[in-house]
Specification:
The chain is of the alpha/beta class and 363 residues long. The protein is built from 15 helices and 8 strands.
Length: 363
C-alpha cells in the first residue's frame, strides 16, 4: 500500500526536534492525537483508506534559540530593520514599544520572546528567514529523497502551524523555484514531486509576507497541473485565534480569479469557531475539531468519508464543547421532573460537568 508522508512544521514557542511526540494541549502529543483520530475512523466508522500514513517532525527551534543568546542586540537590529520593511513602517512606533518591553526579564519577556517577537524577527530579518528556510528545506528534501517512493504511489503532505505556516510557504517556494537561490539549500523539487496537500493552520503566511502586493501571484497555489506546488491547499483558522486573524490569508478577496474554475475545489478554507480548550492557538486545539482533520483525512486516505460519519463526528465533537455541554444542561432543565429522583440526578450531573469544564477554562 502506498504511503502519505505527513511532514509537520511547528509554530512559535519552544519545541523539541521531535516535537510531534511531545505532550501538548490536553497532555497528548500531536502525533498521538492525529493517529487517534485516523484510527478511530477505521475502527469505529468503517473507513478504508487507500494509503498508509506516517508523520515526521520538521523543526527549526535551534535557529530561534541562537537568537535568544544575543537577544538585546537582535532587538536593536530588528528595530532598525523595521523602517526598511514597508509592511511594518506604519506600525514601527508600536513595535518599538513592544521591543523595549521585551528587554527586561520576567514572565512578560518570556511570552514576548516565544510568541510575538518570534514572528517579528522572522518577518523583518531576512538573514533569520533564510537560515530557517534552508534548515527546513533540507529536512523536507531529505525526507522526500529517503522515504517517499514515487514508483509505489507515495506522496507527501506538509502541515505548517502558526509561524510554521509562513516557514512552509516560503520554504516550498524556494524548493520548487529555480529563481530562488539560498546558500546551503541542497534540494530542488520538480513537478513530479508535487505534494498531495499543504495545510496551513493558524495561517500567518500573508501577515509575514515580504511583498504583500504580489503575494497571491506566486506559484504557491493548488491545482492538478504539475507546475503547482500542491494538489490541495487547506487553510485553517479559528475565529478566536488572534494569530491567524491579524491579516488573514484570503486570496479571493485580493484576486477573484486566483484559481481557474477547474482548480477551485482544490482550495479548502476551514473556518472554525468551537472551543475545546482554553489553548485556542495550540495545534492540538485545531486538530480536535473534525472540521479541520476530516477534509485532510479524505485527501490522505484517497477516499471520501460517508456523510453519516461526517455528521456524527461533528455532532459528537460539538456536544463535548462548552457550548454543547451548556445546551445539554439546558435541555435537561426542560425535562426536569422534581418528583423524579433520576431526573434530578441527571440534571445535577450535567450541571456539575459543565461547571467543572468551566473551571478548566478559567485556569
Amino acid at each position: 500500500m502506498a504511503t502519505r508522508h505527513v511532514l509537520c512544521v511547528h509554530g512559535i514557542g519552544s519545541h523539541t526536534d521531535d516535537w510531534i511526540n511531545s505532550p501538548d494541549d490536553g497532555d497528548i502529543s500531536f502525533n498521538d492525537l492525529f493517529l487517534d483520530r485516523w484510527n478511530n475512523l477505521q475502527t469505529n466508522h468503517d473507513y478504508r483508506p487507500r494509503h498508509d500514513i506516517k508523520l515526521y517532525s520538521i523543526h527549526y527551534n535551534d535557529a530561534i534559540e541562537r537568537l535568544l543568546g544575543n537577544w538585546v542586540e537582535q532587538l536593536e537590529l530588528l528595530s532598525n530593520r523595521m523602517s526598511e520593511n514597508a509592511n511594518f513602517q506604519k506600525e514601527k512606533d508600536f513595535f518599538d514599544g513592544l521591543i523595549e518591553k521585551a528587554k527586561p526579564a520576567d514572565d512578560q519577556r518570556i511570552f514576548l520572546l516565544t510568541h510575538i517577537l518570534d514572528l517579528l524577527v522572522f518577518a523583518s530579518l531576512y538573514s533569520v528567514q533564510d537560515s530557517i528556510i534552508t534548515k527546513v528545506g533540507n529536512q523536507i528534501g531529505q525526507i522526500l529523497k529517503d522515504e517517499v517512493d514515487y514508483n509505489r504511489g507515495d506522496q507527501a503532505c506538509v502541515i505548517g502551524h502558526s509561524m510554521g505556516s509562513s516557514v512552509v510557504e516560503k520554504t516550498l517556494k524556494a524548493l520548487f523555484s529555480e529563481s530562488v537561490s539560498l546558500d546551503g539549500l541542497k534540494f530542488r523539487l520538480q513537478g513530479n514531486e508535487q505534494l498531495a496537500a499543504v495545510m496551513l493552520v493558524a495561517n500567518v503566511s500573508y501577515t509575514l509576507a515580504r511583498k504583500r502586493d504580489a503575494f497571491y501571484d506566486s506559484i504557491f497555489r493548488p491545482g492538478g497541473d504539475e507546475m503547482r506546488i500542491m494538489k490541495h491547499l487547506l487553510n485553517a483558522n479559528h475565529k478566536l485565534d488572534p494569530v491567524g486573524n491579524f491579516k488573514p490569508f484570503d486570496p479571493y478577496r485580493h484576486n477573484p480569479d486566483w484559481l481557474p474554475a477547474e482548480d477551485q475545489d482544490n482550495y479548502h478554507n476551514l473556518e472554525i469557531s468551537r472551543l475545546s480548550s482554553p489553548m485556542v492557538h495550540s495545534i492540538n486545539h485545531y486538530f480536535r475539531d473534525p472540521n479541520v482533520y476530516l477534509p485532510l483525512f479524505e485527501i490522505l486516505g484517497g477516499r471520501s468519508i460517508a456523510k453519516t460519519v461526517l455528521v456524527k463526528l461533528r455532532s459528537d465533537f460539538e456536544t463535548d464543547t462548552p457550548l454543547g455541554k451548556f445546551r445539554s444542561a439546558r435541555e435537561s432543565l426542560k425535562e426536569l421532573d422534581v418528583t423524579d429522583a433520576r431526573s434530578m440526578k441527571e440534571f445535577y450531573e450535567k450541571v456539575k460537568a459543565l461547571s467543572d469544564y468551566a473551571q478548566e477554562f478559567k485556569k
